[in-house]
Write a structure and sequence with these properties.
Layout (H helix, E strand, L loop, with lengths): L6 H18 L2 H10 L4 H7 L2 H20 L1 H10 L3 H13 L2 H17 L4 H20 L1 H12 L10 H18 L8 H10 L3 H27 L8 H6 L5 H16 L4 H17 L9 H18 L3 H9 L3 H14 L2 H9 L6 H13 L11 H8 L10 H21 L1
Length: about 425
């Protein structure tokens, strides 16, 4: 039995997908329920973890498949999915967040900030919102999100900073990471899904997408920094100065591991092998390490794996929408659909459409990356940012409405640049 074409299971999967979306937008309510109901606080805290949402509903999907079609077909469907991206995000998050990598990045940002005319806290914030997302075109978007989030966390995402200002920064970060990976053909998941099929190389991306994205990233970062300027203080400077120096050799080895994982991002056997070697190295030089963010990375990977399982059953209604729109309508549709799906899944469906015009190809990808910051599920690196930054928000959760509003301005600017420039 072909589960993906079974009408009953298609409808069940669509309903579960819709429920997962509602759950994603309701995590704050579960955290509030946990505070009001101590007896069941553990369950409500679990359901309030946004990273758990899609994995939870994906398990229910597999259970429904097993009941409707048999356990063998349900397992066959689960095993037919490609989990390279969830595995890669797990590995790259752990390595990119390791102490030697962050030490090198922070030292570089501080040295650069001291050369610029504005106060150091403001410049570090601007560099983290602008240069790090653009650097994601080289080290991939998940790695850029991890590094930028950890650089911004002690400076911006603190309880003394107003919630509205934090959502402005979060929206700018998510949109900048989504479009900042378009300077090359391999760093942004929605671009990667079509690059080989449509023969888009890095030169093509830089000429048609990259310079526009870079301009928008710089503007978004500047606006967010201006909004935050009154709340930025040198809270991290003394801590950074008091940290022990890490030997250059250790930093270089960590950088080599990160480079190797990025180079073999589409070969899980290779990057998982490198990751195991990395774990051994961190044990050998434990004095220069901080606790690895394994729990956070596993939760993000679980979220993305659930999205892969649930998203695989949505083709029956998504692809006709994508294939039936004219180029400009396709752009608007891609922005909107990206907010409730995954932009990489959306562009992948577009790559399956025969004889799609060059203008439609551009509009589809442009809309997918422009809308990649509107929700947690819109772009693969977003759950990583949520996992690393949510503790700085009220109830330790990131509201879907706050994120949407914070990302709306940067998204509209990106959309205007991709359509008009």
């Amino acid at each position: 039995m072909n589960i993906e074409t079974d009408p009953l299971l298609q409808k069940i999967a669509a309903v579960l997908f819709a429920l997962a979306l509602l759950h994603t937008f309701s995590v704050k309510h579960f955290e509030r329920l946990a505070a009001r109901s101590p007896r069941h606080a553990g369950l409500f805290h679990l359901l309030g973890e946004v990273e758990v949402v899609f994995g939870f509903w994906a398990i229910l999907l597999i259970a429904c498949m097993a009941l409707a079609a048999g356990s063998d077909d349900a397992i066959a469907y689960a095993e037919s999915r490609n989990y390279t991206e969830p595995l890669f995000v797990f590995v790259v998050m752990v390595i990119a967040a390791s102490r030697p990598i962050l030490y090198a990045v922070e030292a570089t940002l501080r040295a650069t900030a001291h050369l610029l005319p504005l106060p150091t806290p403001a410049m570090i914030t601007w560099l983290s919102l602008a240069i790090v997302p653009l650097f994601g075109s080289l080290i991939t978007e998940p790695a850029a999100m991890t590094i930028a989030a950890l650089m911004l966390a002690p400076q911006v995402f603190q309880r003394n900073v107003p919630e509205r200002a934090k959502y402005v920064a979060l929206g700018a970060l998510f949109v900048n990471v989504s479009i900042g990976g378009t300077l090359t053909s391999y760093a942004a998941p929605p671009v990667l899904m079509v690059a080989s099929t449509w023969q888009w190389d890095s030169t093509f991306m830089l000429v048609n997408f990259g310079w526009k994205a870079a301009l928008v990233v710089l503007i978004n970062a500047t606006v967010a920094t201006v909004v935050l300027r009154k709340h930025l203080h040198s809270v991290a400077a003394d801590k950074a100065a008091s940290r022990p120096t890490i030997p250059l050799l250790v930093v270089l080895v960590h950088a080599l591991f990160l480079t190797g994982v990025v180079m073999f991002a589409h070969h899980p056997i290779v990057f998982l092998g490198l990751f195991l070697m990395f774990l051994g190295f961190t044990q050998a030089y434990e004095a220069h390490q901080s606790p690895l963010i394994v729990r956070e990375a596993l939760l993000v990977s679980f979220f993305l794996a659930g999205l892969v399982l649930l998203g695989g059953m949505q083709r029956w209604w998504l692809q006709p929408i994508v294939s039936g729109l004219e180029p400009l309508a396709l752009f608007g549709g891609a922005v909107a659909l990206t907010a409730i799906t995954d932009n990489a899944a959306l562009t992948y469906l577009g790559s399956l459409i025969p004889d799609i015009s060059d203008q439609s190809k551009y509009m589809l990808v442009a809309g997918a990356v422009a809308g990649g910051g509107l929700t947690v599920i819109a772009n693969a690196p977003n759950p990583a940012g949520v996992a690393l930054l949510k503790h700085g928000f009220a109830d330790e959760t990131i509201g879907a409405g706050g994120l949407f509003l914070g990302a709306l301005g940067p998204t509209l600017l990106a959309a205007a640049a991709f359509v008009l420039l």
